[in-house]
Amino acid sequence: MKKLFVIVLIVLLSIPAFSQVNYGLKAGLSTTSLSMETLKTVTTGTTSYTVEALKGANYGFHGGAFIRLSLFGLYIQPEFLFSSTTNEYSVINLATPTVKLAQKQSFNKLDIPVMLGFKLGPVRLNAGPAASLLINSPKALIDDPNLKNMYSNMTFGYQAGVGLDILKTLIIDLRYEGSLKKYQNQIEALTGGAKFPLDDRQNAFLLSVGLMF
Fold first, then answer.
1. Residue 107: partners with Cβ closer than 8 Å, 6 or more residues away
2. Neighbours of 213 (CB within 10 A)
3. What is residue 5's predicted lDDT score, i.e. its pLDDT?
4. Could you tell me how far CA 141 lies from the centroid of its own chain?
5. pLDDT in tens, 168-198
6. Secondary structure of the chain in HEC code, one letter for each residue
7. pLDDT of residue 172
8. The predicted structure's pLDDT at residue 15
9. How far apart are CA 127 and CA 204, in angstroms?
10. What confidence score (pLDDT) does residue 45 get?
11. Rounded distance, CA 84 to CA 107, Å?
12. Other residues' Cβ atoms within 10 Å of the Cβ of residue 13
């Protein structure tokens, strides 16, 4: 939370230095993919499970507000967006390996990308850091009283992409988002204290449209 406060404070203090200030609203869809390096095996008591991220894209949505601060063709654009994504995993109890459970976890977040860019006519090129603050507590992957999931409340990544301004009012953005930190840390065995890192990282393509005032 301290890092989030610092980001917001820097943005507010920088506003007077720019010659043009615009505000806007935007919303859009995302297609996400989850990357796990290896198949994970989790053991509690005499029961073992395997956890694997399902291949293929998942979809989510995002929406919120932004501020664009422009000067000499360059700009900085902080955004404050609510986003929701769903990840899918295959969880198998090795005592009954023929039964494969597809588990879903929904993550609701406050995303704060700070985009730095420049304009070539109506076209924009931009990139910058992005912070994500987890709002909810997703349900556990494994229904076991001796296990719980541990999450990072805040993660950091980056976004980069291209945008288009139409009549200085309608905006369209296409971006790639990458993660610099583990999205979900680990599963922890409450009785023995063992921790099983999942080390999964989420990447996404984001398409959004908005209005600028």
1. 84, 85, 86, 87, 134, 136, 138, 183
2. 8
3. 63
4. 19
5. 899 999 999 998 776 666 888 887 778 887 7
6. CHHHHHHHHHHHHHHHHCCEEEEEEEEEEEEEEEEECCCEEEEECCEEEEEEECCCCEEEEEEEEEEEEEECCEEEEEEEEEEEEEEEEEEEECCCCCCEEEEEEEEEEEEEEEEEEEEECCEEEEEEEEEEEECCCCCCCCCCCCEEEEECCEEEEEEEEEEEEECCCEEEEEEEEEECCCCEEEEEECCCCCEEEEEEEEEEEEEEEEEEC
7. 98
8. 60
9. 14
10. 82
11. 6
12. 9
Low-confidence ranges of the chain (pLDDT < 70): 1-19, 37, 182-185, 199-200
Whole-model pTM?
Answer: 0.83
The tally of domains found in the chain comes to 1
CA distance 40 to 85: 22
- Nearest to 200, CA basis, from 30, 38, 29, 31: 38
Assigned token pair, 191: 């009785």
Q: 73 — phi, psi (to 5°)?
A: 85, -10
Length of the chain: 213
Cβ–Cβ contacts within 10 Å for residue 96, how many? Answer: 8
Tokens of 183: 């999205």
Amino acid at 31: T
Find the domain containing 21 and state its range: 2-212
Q: Distance between CA atoms of 86 and 67, rounded to whole angstroms? A: 28
Residue recorded with tokens 């010659």: 19
Q: Residue 74: which CATH number? A: 2.40.160.20
Cβ proximity of 181 and 3 under 8 Å:
no
Task: Please give the pLDDT value at position 53.
Answer: 82
pLDDT of residue 100: 77
